[in-house]
Amino acid sequence: MTPVSWTPEATDGPARAGTLHTPHGDVPTPVFMPVGTRASVKGLDAADLEGIGTTMVLANTYHLMLRPGSDLIHRMGGLHGFMSWRRPVLTDSGGYQVFSLDPRITEEGAVFRSVYDGSEVSLTPEQAVRHQERLGADVAMVLDICLGLPSALSELEEAMERTLRWSERSLAAHRRPDQALFGIVQGGVSPGLRRASAAATAALGFPGFGIGGLSVGEPASERNLALEATMTELPTGRPRYLMGVGDPQGIVDAIARGVDMFDCVWPTRLARHGKVLGRRGDYNLRAAAFATDERPLDPDCECSVCGRYTRSYLRHLLRVRETSSGRLISIHNLAYVTGLMNAARRAIVAGDFSGFCRRFAELRVSREAPGPLI
User: Fold this and answer.
1) pTM score, two decimals?
2) φ, ψ dihedrals at 52, nearest 5°
3) Which end of the chain is more exposed for a tag (fewer CB within 10 A), N or C?
4) How do residues 134-158 score in pLDDT, each as one tens digit?
5) Which residues have CB under 8 Å from 330's CB, separation 6+?
6) Cα gap 270→322, rounded to integer Å
7) Active site residue 92
8) Catalytic residue among 12, 138, 253, 263
9) Which of 92, 138, 260, 298 is flagged as catalytic?
């Protein structure tokens, strides 16, 4: 029996609600995973994440294999012990970070320079698996090839085919029985390549599937078409994870097409620059209009930050460069995205996902529009 499985609970059109079962607990889906690149969601600790209602986090193999090293983390009890995080963890193989460094790619793997000391580092599919086994994540990802868009169709096809070959090698190398290894679908925004990649990846028998190579410069309309093509070939009883998408509209669009899992640095990265996510639209807290604004960041939000602090005060923290500003706005932004996932789930279970999408769009357009999402 696989250590990770997904149980469907309700559907409304292609949109799905279910539960991801892992060795460290169950995760209701749809779910958003905050990104703890270096075994830390920047500025936050485990208690902050628990307070937000985070059920699963992501850590990055590329960074952790370089510092402090996967062997050290293994000796410290794996990521769960090292981070003092008792809930599920997913590790990205590091493919996106590696290929953003313009590595030398061969059939064997990738060779690149460390961002920490400039030394030459190699990463093969087998090594990526080994590092993730040592890190001890509940879900590990195969090493894939991610290209920026637009790219030539021939380049996308070559990357897709090599990702499939690397996927087979990853499966052969994977040994940890309490960890699930997910495959990754590639193919750019070509519906034909996406269908071919999804069908071939599904045939390898992975317990779950990442959808990579999107949100890398393509229009949302093309991303949605690529997602629709992908979904036609993936098994309905296994989880689907759209990698690197975290903007609210992108999340809602993907849930509507059958995606279950998401991750992105977007909510916390924006927070550090003063960008606030809210049900009635996003805004930059640095604007002078908020200097004397006594309202919370989002009047509809029940997070600890909105329950205590005013926009005026948080803007002041930003302007005087208090590091607490990034932490506090990050808590709110992640609470907003978590709440969005919960509302989408409730709507799917209630058979009202189309109504949820309509209310979501209305609220984002009109900041004064009343009423809950569901």
Assistant:
1) 0.96
2) -70, -25
3) N
4) 999 999 999 999 888 899 999 999 9
5) 41, 42, 43, 44, 267, 268, 271, 272
6) 16
7) yes
8) 263
9) 92
